[in-house]
């Protein structure tokens, strides 16, 4: 059996945040953890009707976000109203529900107000109305970027652990594309496709001794995705194409295996990945002989029940 990886997973079963929570670590300093994006810079602003004074939009994807209104001294007749607007595309904005700051007047100026943004949009910006006279203020968006100096290392550990457990269990956790090569049509019908769960069989091609490649019509075979491992079988009354095969790897089955999203991955697999990451994190200086050759027994317990041990 020959397998070649065509497209690796674009998502891991375990997120960086989940692993850090599992490891109980967050090595970020306060300075690196928090950043500020001025949206309306500090200054004295003249009257602006109907929230016509717009701040600079701020991308907040992946952050906890706090919007801070810092008001200075207002003229005797001035009032200041500020609210938060949100958008999916930084083009069309609408008011975020419950986003209005308390109106600022000379009676409550020279103060700071804070609102935590708890919406689910990608962009926010403040808009302001100034009436009566000039107002001195600023609006800043504070990001809580939960990062650590080891984030890259931990991200790599997730990939390493996932790949190693996939290899040991002979399964695919996340969606990935493979080429499965055979020297000739299998004698068994149906025949198994490795690395369950099988999602899609994209194509089956065959190469003859003259290096001419042809594709098997989908009307010839049926794909059994219910069984693990998945199978490919001839439809009733069909036969595989007759040809003189190339000496090796004449048949190529391109297939997609693994879950479509992390939410579809078994919690046992996720826990095993995090445990192996923890093992590697704490024992990062192991010798080559023991680094990944032995999976700790406690981790194997999460995987053993579903381990694939045989393929036809």
**Major sheet summary line:** 5 strands, antiparallel
Give the averaged pLDDT, no decimals: 90
Task: Tell me how many strands there are.
Answer: 17
Number of domain modules: 2
End-to-end Cα distance: 9 Å
Determine the structural class based on helices, strands and strand pairing: alpha+beta
Fraction of residues in helix: 10-25%
| Poorly predicted regions | none
How would you classify the quaternary structure? single chain
The side-by-side strand order for the widest beta sheet comes to 1-11-17-13-14
Write the element-wise H/E pattern from the N-terminal end onward.
Answer: EHHEEEEEEEEEHEEEEEEEHHH
Q: Tell me, briefly, the overall form.
A: elongated
Q: How large a portion of the residues is in β-strands, by DSSP E?
A: 35-45%
* DSSP summary: helix tally: 6
As a whole number of angstroms, the C-alpha radius of gyration is 29 Å
Descriptive account of the structure:
- The chain contains six helices and 17 strands.
- With 312 residues, it is of the alpha+beta class.
- It has two domains: 2-24 and 150-306, no CATH class; 30-144, Jelly Rolls, CATH 2.60.120.1110.
- A five-stranded antiparallel sheet has the order 1-11-17-13-14, with no helix packed on it.
- Strand 15 (221-224) and strand 16 form a beta hairpin.
């Amino acid at each position: 059996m020959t397998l070649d990886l065509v497209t690796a997973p674009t998502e891991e079963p375990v997120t960086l945040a989940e692993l850090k929570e599992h490891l109980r670590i967050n090595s970020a300093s306060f300075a690196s953890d928090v950043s500020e994006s001025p949206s309306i810079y500090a200054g004295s602003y003249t009257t602006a009707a109907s929230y016509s004074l717009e701040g600079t939009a701020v991308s907040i994807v992946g952050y906890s976000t706090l919007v801070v209104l810092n008001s200075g001294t207002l003229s005797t007749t001035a009032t200041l109203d500020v609210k938060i607007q949100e958008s999916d595309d930084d083009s069309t904005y609408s008011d975020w529900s419950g986003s209005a700051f308390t109106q600022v007047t000379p009676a409550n100026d020279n103060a700071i107000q804070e609102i935590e943004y708890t919406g689910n949009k990608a962009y926010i910006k403040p808009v302001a109305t100034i009436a009566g006279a000039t107002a001195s203020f600023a609006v800043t968006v504070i990001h809580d970027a939960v990062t650590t100096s080891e984030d890259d290392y931990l991200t790599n550990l997730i990939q390493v652990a996932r790949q190693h457990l996939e290899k040991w269990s002979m399964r695919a956790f996340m969606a990935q594309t493979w080429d499965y090569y055979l020297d000739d049509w299998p004698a068994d019908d149906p025949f198994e496709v490795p690395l369950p769960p099988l999602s899609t069989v994209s194509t089956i091609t065959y190469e003859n001794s003259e290096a001419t490649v042809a594709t098997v019509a989908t009307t010839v075979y049926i794909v059994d995705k219910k069984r693990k491992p998945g199978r490919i079988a001839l439809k009733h009354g069909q036969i595989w194409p007759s040809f003189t095969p190339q000496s090796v790897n004449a048949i190529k089955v391109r297939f997609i295996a693994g879950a479509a999203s992390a939410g579809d991955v078994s919690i046992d697999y996720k826990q095993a990945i995090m445990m192996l990451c923890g093992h590697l994190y704490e024992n990062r200086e192991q010798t080559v002989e023991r680094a990944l050759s032995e999976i700790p027994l406690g981790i194997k317990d999460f995987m053993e029940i579903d381990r694939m041990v045989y393929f036809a």
